[in-house]
Amino acid sequence: MKEHTIQLNLSPERKPKPQSADLGFGKIFTDHMFIMDYTEGQGWHDPRIVPYQPLSLDPSCMIFHYGQSVFEGLKAYLTEDNRVLLFRPERNFQRLNRSNERLCIPAVDVDMAIEALKQLISVEKEWIPKWEGTSLYIRPFIIATEPFLGVKPSSRYQFIIILSPVGLYYKEGIKPVKILVENEFVRAVAGGTGEAKTAGNYASSLKAQEIADRKEYSQVLWLDGVEKKYIEEVGSMNVFFKINGEVVTPALNGSILDGVTRNSVIQLLKHWGMTVTERRISMEELREAHQAGQLEEAFGTGTAAIISPIGELLWKDEKMIINDGVTGPVSEKLFHTITSIQGGKEPDPFNWTMEVEQCIEVK
Amino acid sequence: MKEHTIQLNLSPERKPKPQSADLGFGKIFTDHMFIMDYTEGQGWHDPRIVPYQPLSLDPSCMIFHYGQSVFEGLKAYLTEDNRVLLFRPERNFQRLNRSNERLCIPAVDVDMAIEALKQLISVEKEWIPKWEGTSLYIRPFIIATEPFLGVKPSSRYQFIIILSPVGLYYKEGIKPVKILVENEFVRAVAGGTGEAKTAGNYASSLKAQEIADRKEYSQVLWLDGVEKKYIEEVGSMNVFFKINGEVVTPALNGSILDGVTRNSVIQLLKHWGMTVTERRISMEELREAHQAGQLEEAFGTGTAAIISPIGELLWKDEKMIINDGVTGPVSEKLFHTITSIQGGKEPDPFNWTMEVEQCIEVK
Ligand SMILES: Cc1ncc(COP(=O)(O)O)c(C=O)c1O
Ligand SMILES: Cc1ncc(COP(=O)(O)O)c(C=O)c1O
C-alpha cells in the first residue's frame, strides 16, 4: 500500500453530541469531513481532513446541471469494548469505482479511500453513538465541479466523506412494512444507470415514492423498465422472498444495485445450509406463490435498515399479506446475526468487519 | 400580472467583456445572477439580482446526493437596431414547471420568472455579443438545498438564472455532423424522466457520448429504451427526417424532450405548406428509406445549434450517407429563417419573439 499523506486541519470548535432521542437519520453531521480534489492532468490530489463546512461552488459547476455524481453509504459501529468496526468497506469503494466507470468519473484508489475513512473516523470517534441499534453513517460522494455549461465529463471533481450519527432507520425497530408495487414509473432500465449509485436514480424515484406515501405505503417495489413484469428492488433496498422453503432474489441484471447487505445475506443463508437462488422473478409468479400459500417471507436489505421485513404487497388491486404481517423467522435471524456481527457481539466467520485503530489522537 | 419586487444588489466591479474570438459555449459568465429561495410553508421568496458569485452549500445538501434538479436553456439576441429579443421564453418556463412536476419540485410563477429574466438581462445588456451567430445563453435552474441525507423531496430549493455570452455552437457554422446510433446505452424510458430536463438524464448520457467521441462521431442517436428500435433524439436535440418529400419526427411519447426548436420547426414547415408528421419511426424504416434513395435530409433541432444537419448515420455496421453529406435545402432554410426571426431580421409571423425593454438603468 502506498503512503497517503492526508493533511489534518482540526476544527477549533466542537459541536455538542446528540442524545439518543435526537438521533434521526442523516440530519446531524460531525465536526470534520474529508475532501480530495481531482484535476485533469494531475489526478486526485490534496487529500485533507478539514472542519465540516459549506462547499463553495460556482453556479455553473457541472454537478448542478448535468448530475455527474456518485455516492456510497456504509456505517461504523462501536463495540461494547469500545472498538470501532467498519462493515465490508472495500465493497463500497469498489462499487463506487464501478459507479464512477458508468458516470465517466475517474476512479479513486480503494486503499487510499479506506485509509482516509479510517483517519476521519479516528478523529470523530466520540461521535459514534453507543446505544443499541445506533451507528455512524458514512457518506462518501463525488461531484463534478468544472464550471462549464456543456454536456461532457467534467475535468474537475471533489471526493468528499461526511459522517452522521444515526439511530434506528425505522423508529419502531424491525417491523414489517407495506409496499406498493409500481406499475407506471420506472427506476432504471437495462442500458441505463440502475447498477450505479448516482444521484439521478434517486431523483427519478421521488414521484412514485410520493404517490406511495399518499396511499400510506412505506416504499415502492420497482419492476423492470421494459416489460414491467419482473421484480427489481424495493425503494432503496434489494429484495428477497422465501417461497416454499427456498430463498430467491432478483439476479444482478444491470439495472439493480449490487447491495453489500444483499451479498452478505446470500452468503449467510448459504452458510446456514439454505437454498438461495438469484434469478428473474415475475410478479405473476409471486402472486401464484402467495395464492398457493407458499410465499412465506419477504424482506428488503440495505445498509440503512439492514433487514426490513415486508408485511404487505399491493399489486394493482390485489393485496398480498405475507406471514400474517409479522416478521418471519429468517428475516429475524438475518437481522440479529448481521447486526451482531457488525457490532462485534458475535463471531465474524467471513471476516466482514474491519477495525479502525485509533491512529490519530484527538483531545 | 402581480407585482414582483426583485431586490437589486449590483456588483461594484465589472469583468471585461469577451471578444468575438474568445466566445465559446458556456465558459464565460456575466456580472450578475438572479436567485430566489423556496422554503416549505413559505413558498418562493426573496427574489434578487446579485453579483455573480459562488453558491455556499452544506455538503449534505440534497442536490449533491439525490440529484433533485431541473434546468432550462434559452437565448437572448441583440438586433441590428440594438433591441434585445427573447425567443418564446414562456415555453421554457412552462417546460420548467413540467420538469418540476416530475421531479417533485414546487412550480415557479411563469410571469414572475419572465419578469426576473427581463430585469436580469436589462442589467446585463452590455454582455450580449453583437456578432453574427452570437447570443446570450440563459440558464435557469433549480436545485434542492435541504441539508439532509434521505430520499424524499427537499423542503428547500434555490431557483437561479445565470447568463453566458456564446458564439456559434459549432465553430464551423451550419455543417453536417456524423451521428452514431446507440444500441447499448439508453437515455430514457417510458415511466422514467426523459420528458423532463433534469440533471440525471445528462449524466447517464455521458458514457455513450464518450464512446461516440472515440469513434469520431459528433453525437449519438438514442433509441427507445424498451425495444431499441424506435428513434428518440440526437444527443441533446430533437431529430427530423425528410423522407420522400415529407418531414417526420418522433412523436412526444413521454421519454423525449418537448423541444422549443422542435415545435417552432413543425410550425414553420406547416406554414410553408409542407407535410410534417409526428409519429413513431424505426431505424429499420429509416434504413429502407435510405436504401430506396428516399432519405433526403436529416437534422437535429435545439436551442444551442438551432438546426444541425446530419450528414452520416452509423447503425451497427451500416453507414448511411445523407444528401451526400452536405446541408440540405430544408435544413438550410429552417436555420436561416429561425435565426433571422430570433435576431429580428425577418418578420415574426407567429409572435415568437419577446422584447426586453430597458427597465433598469445601469451605468
Ligand atoms: C437502489 C438501492 N438498492 C439497494 C441498496 C442496498 O445496498 P446496500 O446493501 O449496499 O446498502 C441501496 C442502498 O444502499 C440502494 O440505494
Ligand atoms: C435532451 C434534449 N432534447 C432536445 C433538446 C432541444 O430542446 P430545445 O429546442 O427546447 O432547446 C434539448 C436541449 O435543449 C435537450 O436537452
TrEMBL record, chains A, B:
Keyword field: Amino-acid biosynthesis, Aminotransferase, Branched-chain amino acid biosynthesis, Pyridoxal phosphate, Transferase
EC supergroup of this enzyme: transferase
Catalytic activity: L-leucine + 2-oxoglutarate = 4-methyl-2-oxopentanoate + L-glutamate; L-valine + 2-oxoglutarate = 3-methyl-2-oxobutanoate + L-glutamate; L-isoleucine + 2-oxoglutarate = (S)-3-methyl-2-oxopentanoate + L-glutamate
Pfam assignment, any one: Aminotran_4
The keyword DNA repair appears for this protein: no
Cofactor annotation: pyridoxal 5'-phosphate
GO MF annotation terms: branched-chain-amino-acid transaminase activity
Region annotated Disordered, chain positions: 1-21
Record has DNA damage as a keyword: no
Comp. bias regions, Polar residues: 1-10
Metabolic or biological pathway: Amino-acid biosynthesis; L-valine biosynthesis; L-valine from pyruvate: step 4/4; Amino-acid biosynthesis; L-leucine biosynthesis; L-leucine from 3-methyl-2-oxobutanoate: step 4/4; Amino-acid biosynthesis; L-isoleucine biosynthesis; L-isoleucine from 2-oxobutanoate: step 4/4
EC number(s) recorded for this UniProt protein: 2.6.1.42
Family that this chain belongs to: Belongs to the class-IV pyridoxal-phosphate-dependent aminotransferase family.
Name listed for the protein in its UniProt record: Branched-chain-amino-acid aminotransferase
